[in-house]
Amino acid sequence: MAEASGLSPALSSAEKNPLHLQCGECPIRHRAVCARCDNEELTALENLKYYRRFEAGQPVVWSGDRMDFVASVVTGIATLTQTMEDGRRQMVGLLLPSDFVGRPGRMIAGYDVTAATDLVMCCFRRKPFEEMMATTPHVAQRLLEMTLDELDAAREWMLLLGRKTAREKIASLLAIIARRDASLNLRRASGKLMVDLPLTREEMADYLGLTLETVSRQISALKRDGVILLEGKRQILVPDFDRLLEEAGDDCDGGIPG
Amino acid sequence: MAEASGLSPALSSAEKNPLHLQCGECPIRHRAVCARCDNEELTALENLKYYRRFEAGQPVVWSGDRMDFVASVVTGIATLTQTMEDGRRQMVGLLLPSDFVGRPGRMIAGYDVTAATDLVMCCFRRKPFEEMMATTPHVAQRLLEMTLDELDAAREWMLLLGRKTAREKIASLLAIIARRDASLNLRRASGKLMVDLPLTREEMADYLGLTLETVSRQISALKRDGVILLEGKRQILVPDFDRLLEEAGDDCDGGIPG
DNA sequence: TTCCACCGTTGATCTGCGTCAAGGAAGCTT
DNA sequence: AAGCTTCCTTGACGCAGATCAACGGTGGAA
Fold it and tell me: How confident is the model at residue B243 (pLDDT cuts 50, 70, 90)?
């Protein structure tokens, strides 16, 4: 793993103690690997690393080589991207806090992992992780469930990539971000739903299989049509979430929790 | 689960005993769930079902409702597809022998499961499966590995859907089928690689996020350019596999095993 | 045999999105 | 302040692939 060398992280006090952001003592949220906070094997393996959002041409944190570890996002956002020789790029994973990357059992990464924001990850070396999996069955089960969730998300994503129009893709992404955002900390402004976009237009384009120009145009169009309101460039207001879902072409039932 | 009722399967002798197709005694291949053929819990739960390839408008074997089971393909091919209200369809999974569907822990299917060919599946009810998972750690681990493999495949697929041209998509699909085909039983005719397409043009289109017309045109183009030869409509000869990979835009190293 | 359903091919035309290009706004460093 | 970089927006144009349409081949049923 590439060392996050020379970083002198200027973080808020909450971010300084990511251990306590999640479930009090355990570096990994309940939703993540650890199902019991008092799991000593897990906390003993704890190994936090900082990564800065990359400036200029976003180089990767890890490229497509050895990946003999498992890592869980504590704070920040990481992206998984695949790149073709000629530079075409497709995002294939978006890791929010409590999501994980890595392959117990296999060793080669098939994608780049990049810090989309400043990022704190909790890393486990492969060997001890595997031993722990073998001796602690509930960890393997939890991991299986999370992986199946990821797979379901990937399949939704495939429908988006293969069959949705640009406008539907944008609306879908906004709905996804809004929903995940809301599941953590719901924020409403004057009865409307407030969402901020953690991604640049280019990153959205890579997520959606579009160009950044098309992303920009469609966001403008949604704004023009009153589906969303822009508050600056990276923050949107959603006056009517159901309308947004409609634009997304989602049969996916379910609004915002809370 | 929908019963495959009223089927009087007219199958070859090999297909009549799918138990013995895979690893002699166990209905599930080594690659699949069962890591030890003598696992009595597994074989005791064994529950084989036949499904016919659906004629006319392909209805689904299971639609997006309860899915309180886990099932593994023994012989044949199953597809997972998602459909939007207006009928747009995207394939999100292609299950060959030893692949599985199902959600230990969760209950709702997010996609249709369809028999693309006549199909034999080995089904486990959720409850006993979960109990077994809890008591037999190597099953959970094996399942996790398989799920991670699926996830990797899904991510390759996302690159294909989001960024590849129609020609590259077709070449990629042919390469994928050839590779999976070869990993089971390699067949070569006069030094060339012989692959038969288990999917209709429409199913390929759903796989690739294209229309069936475009699929047909691009296959014709690849044939015209000598990348492939057609032997009938559902069987192709690949004179040069590396050439095919090149057309696919794959940096994905690795030719045909064997 | 005829009829019909399904599957595949090919042509003509249309259009959504990519491509190329120019420029504006915000945040830096010097 | 000026000047840089990064991020975003908007316009003009072209093309890959969708859409609409016609037709051929094959296999099963009557």
Answer: very high
Distance, angstroms, CA B151 to C1' D16? 29
Judgement on whether residues B144 and B192 belong to the same structural domain of the protein:
no
- Picking from B81, B139, B142, B148 by the largest number of A CB atoms within 10 A of its own CB, the best residue to mutate is B148
Which of the listed residues A112, A132, A161 is the one where a domain comes to its end? A161
pLDDT digits (tens, 9 = 90+) for A89-105: 999 999 988 888 887 76
Residue-range definition of the domain harbouring residue B125: 13-161
CB atoms within 10 A of CB B136: 19
State which nucleotides on strand C lie below 7 Å from a protein beta carbon: 5-12, 16-21
CB A154 within 8 A of CB B158: yes
Instruction: Give the closest of A93, A106, A134 to B148, CB-based.
Output: A106
The whole-angstrom separation of Cα A156 and Cα B24 is 37
Average of per-residue pLDDT across B231-257 = 82
DSSP 8-state secondary structure symbol assigned to residue B53: P
Instruction: Please provide the average confidence, as pLDDT, over all residues in chain A.
Output: 75
A29 and A144 in a single domain? The answer is yes
Residue B208 contacts A, CB cutoff 8 Å: yes
Cite the DSSP H helix spans in A70-211.
126-135, 137-163, 166-184, 201-208
Interface confidence (ipTM) of the complex: 0.85
Q: How many whole angstroms separate alpha carbon A77 and alpha carbon A87?
A: 23
Q: Which nucleotide is nearest to A214 (CA to C1')?
A: C17
A53 with A129, same domain: the answer is yes
Number of domains into which chain A is organized: 2
Cβ contact B195:A127 at 8 Å: no
Give CA–CA dist A132/A34, Å, rounded: 11
Nucleic strand D under 7 Å from the C-beta of A200: yes
Of B115, B131, B161, at which residue does a domain stop?
A: B161
Q: Are residues B170 and B66 in the same domain?
A: no
A with B: how many residue pairs have Cβ under 8 Å apart?
Answer: 125
Residue B7 lies in a domain: no
Q: Is the pLDDT of residue B69 over 70?
A: yes
Lowest-pLDDT range of A90-104, A166-180, B28-42, B226-240? B28-42
Q: How far is A237 from chain B (nearest CA, A)?
A: 26
| Percent share of chain A, pLDDT over 90 | 37
**Residue A253 pLDDT exceeds 80:** no
Judgement on whether residues A129 and A184 belong to the same structural domain of the protein: no
Task: Tell which A residues from 79 to 98 touch B, by Cβ distance under 8 Å.
Answer: 80, 82, 84-86, 88-90, 92-93
CB contact under 8 A, B151 and A147: yes
Answer yes or no: is A5 within a domain.
Answer: no
Nearest nucleotide to the CA of A55, by C1', is D6
